[in-house]
Design goal:
22 helices, binds the ligand O=C(O)c1ccccc1NCC(=O)[C@H](O)[C@H](O)COP(=O)(O)O, RibuloseP-bd_barrel, PRAI_dom, TIM Barrel, lyase, eight-stranded parallel barrel, 490 residues, 2 domains, isomerase, aromatic amino acid biosynthesis
């Protein structure tokens, strides 16, 4: 097994290094170093996705990636292109890394530097500091609770930070209990090398809000990073797709732009496999199902499972295709029913579209999207009571029918709401008006139902046209950087 092999090799190498340079000497060297760079500052502001760019020549899962890579030149390009932290492999056998790379890179850049290795002994933490590292990697899978705590303590005593890496909810609980401040969720299983791009979604909701969350591995495309914006991570750790890129600055700009300046799209009121296929192919980020019985879009929970199973794009996604998240929409339903349906279908988010109070939202065991409508300026104050306890706010047109009416609301009030919170804009959106809506409101996301229907039935052409128009408008927005800065919440 790979992990056992690498840990065994690490022990052998370590025993030799301890003979060559005893612990007391490496400790002294560590303590002689100038103070480490501030890693937490590098992840500020928290509502942006920052980049940890990795220097690696090879990996056990992919073999030789970039044998001729110049570590220092590459790290400088990373920094100049917007990376907030540089990760440097120091493991020599499986990743072709080296301590010399770390020290040389530390001297060449001004951002913090992470020692990426298989750390199992305090000696390696002192070593990391002696070589210039500001941060170390601690992998839960190779450490027991006591080791994790001890190594975190050594790092803290040296004023270094640790990226504590987890691969499961269980490990995430262990990292939290050990007091990890920066938690990395690695999509790559270190035993089988299998990728689970959805791991971050499943683990994110049990991680406390005050931690810095890093998504690790398998981050290549626009769609990959648009998902990260949905899971509220503070950083992405990217190696392979950078070192193999023909144009690293362009690739970094693409990753940062799509992680921080895209508009999420929710297609709501779905009930047929063909429309789910179209929404997925067109790049929808969320699929909505209406569980409000009076609505003509009502769908029984069991039927949702059937239509998803009948959707080819959902059950057999193309290589590299990212599946949207599932949202259940409820109106004044009781919490037990909502939680039971969420578990039955595997919903990722719950949208509450009625008069639900902030206290009620807290009874839901999924992240909540609370729909609110704005009639006048004073209504903006109501948003504050929901903001901290819900995942997102959805601003919809005020109507007696709750939602899905095809009527547009007051976009000026929505614009003010978008300046305070990450909002989804809903109500009367169509392929024709959505560019103006994005431009005027600058919402975090969009929710559409009637505008992608013909005669009260979803229309594949309209779904595709809507999403294409959103992506087109985004390009215009991204090319006007001064607008991006105005809307830092997106
Ligand atoms: O769509 C419905 O029938 C519905 C019924 C009751 C509560 C909410 C409902 N829809 C919620 C949505 O998320 C809609 O997508 C949103 O209101 C926008 O609708 P539309 O104006 O039709 O685009």
């Amino acid at each position: 097994m790979f992990l056992d092999r690498i840990v065994n090799q690490t022990r052998i190498d370590l025993a030799q290094r301890k003979i060559d340079l005893p612990l007391e000497q490496i400790k002294r060297q560590a303590l002689e170093q100038p103070s480490p760079r501030d890693v937490l500052e590098a992840f500020d502001p928290r509502d942006r996705v920052h980049l940890i760019a990795e220097v690696k020549r090879a990996s056990p899962s992919k073999g030789l990636l970039a044998p001729d890579l110049d570590p220092v030149a590459t790290a400088k390009i990373y920094e100049q292109s917007g990376a907030s932290v540089i990760s440097v492999l120091t493991e020599p056998h499986f990743f072709l890394g080296s301590p010399e790379y770390l020290t040389a890179i530390k001297n060449a850049v001004s951002v913090p530097v992470l020692r990426k290795d298989f750390i199992i002994d305090e000696y390696q933490v002192y070593e990391a500091r002696a070589w210039g590292a500001d941060m170390i990697l601690l992998i839960c899978a190779i450490l027991d609770d006591q080791q994790l705590r001890d190594l975190l303590n050594v790092a803290t005593s040296l004023r270094m930070r640790a990226l504590v890496e987890v691969h499961s909810q269980d490990e995430a609980q262990r990292a939290i209990a050990a007091g990890a401040v920066i938690i990395g969720v690695n999509s790559r299983n270190l035993t089988t090398f299998e990728m689970n791009p959805y791991l971050i979604r499943d683990i994110r909701r049990i991680l406390p809000e005050d931690r810095v969350i890093v998504a690790e591995s398998g981050i290549h495309s626009e769609a990959d990073v648009r998902r990260l914006a949905r899971y509220d991570v503070q950083a992405m750790l990217v190696g392979e797709s950078l070192v193999v890129s023909k144009n690293i600055p362009d690739h970094i700009q693409m990753l940062l732009r799509h992680a921080n300046h895209t508009t999420q799209v929710k297609i709501c009121g779905l009930s047929e496999p063909e429309h789910i296929d179209t929404a997925i192919e067109a790049g929808a980020d969320m699929l909505g199902f209406i569980f409000h019985k009076p609505s003509h879009r009502y769908i029984q929970p069991e039927r949702v499972l059937e239509v998803l199973a009948a959707s080819q794009s959902y059950t057999q996604p193309r290589q590299g295709q990212v599946l949207p998240d599932l949202v259940g929409v409820f109106v004044n339903e009781d919490a037990d029913t909502i939680n039971a349906i969420a578990d039955q279908i595997g919903l990722h988010y719950i949208q509450l579209h009625g008069d639900e109070t902030p206290e009620f939202c807290q009874q839901i065991n999924r992240p909540v999207i609370k729909a609110l409508s704005l009639r006048q300026l004073e209504d903006l104050e109501r948003l504050a009571s929901y903001r901290d306890i819900t995942w997102r706010l959805l601003i919809d047109t005020p109507t007696p029918d709750w939602g899905g009416t095809g009527r547009t609301g007051d976009w000026e009030l929505a614009r003010l709401a978008a300046q305070q919170s990450k909002i989804l804009l809903a109500g009367g959106l169509t392929a024709e008006n959505v560019a103006t809506a994005i431009d005027q409101v600058q919402p975090w996301g969009l929710d559409v139902s009637s505008g992608v229907e013909t005669e009260r039935r979803k229309d594949s052409q309209k779904i595709a046209a809507f999403i294409a128009q959103v992506r087109q408008s985004e390009k215009g927005q991204q090319e006007a950087p001064e607008r991006q800065e105005e809307s830092s919440l997106r």
